[in-house]
Write a structure and sequence with these properties.
Helices cover 50% and strands 9% of the residues. By secondary structure, the chain is mainly α. The protein has two domains: 2-61, no CATH class; 74-105. The chain has a two-stranded parallel ribbon with strand order 1-2. Strand 1 (12-16), helix 2 (24-40) and strand 2 form a beta-alpha-beta unit. The relative contact order is 0.12.
Length: 106
């Protein structure tokens, strides 16, 4: 169904986030399917994110791979922690000192 739909469109972007978090068997099946889609539909573009160790695995399925290394800064990590702590389902279980300790230690 996906292949049929893609063939009707001028360009398609398929984004897979955190590929490294999927089980190896599922990851291999997904990469094979994506490879088949790209071969049959030149309008398809694939964007995959994952930790560096999956890069070689992705290269087994795709001949043209562009890698963009990303390294978070301390500010990026702090912003992420702040946003996660802001969404705490029990905000009153943590005081300001504990919050500061969490951010400082991590």
């Amino acid at each position: 169904m996906l292949k049929t739909t893609i063939s009707l469109l001028p360009i398609v972007y398929i984004c897979i986030d955190a590929l490294d978090e999927s089980p190896l068997k599922s990851r291999q099946e997904l990469l094979m399917s994506l490879r088949d889609i790209v071969r049959e539909s030149p309008c398809a573009r694939v964007l995959v994110t994952g930790r560096p160790h999956v890069e070689e695995e992705v290269k087994k399925y795709f001949t043209e791979v562009v890698t963009v290394p990303v390294s978070p800064t301390a500010g990026d990590i702090r912003a992420y922690l702040d946003s996660r702590l802001d969404r705490d389902p029990e905000p009153y279980a943590m005081d300001g000192d504990l919050r500061r300790d969490i951010i400082r230690i991590i």
